[in-house]
Amino acid sequence: MIGYVACECLIYDAQSLKEKRAVLQRIMTRLKQKYNISVAEIDYQDMWQRTKLGIVAITSNRMTTERELQRALEMIDSFPEIERTVTTFEWF
User: Rounded distance, CA 7 to CA 27, Å?
Assistant: First the structure.
């Protein structure tokens, strides 16, 4: 089962693209290290305080995939410098 999550996020304290990318790089690295997922910035690359992340997980059943994606979203929520706004799930 393939699960895909697109989540838009706000980074309020970023005053430049360099600061935004530093925050995103730290978050994406930790997500990749801790969970069996792929993650990338998929939109708003040229905006300082806004981003859209795409997260994909592939496992043998939907429950495991959904659990992995939910854990990744919980980790994103644990970072104080980023706020998750719109989140959509898709299944393939």
Answer: 13
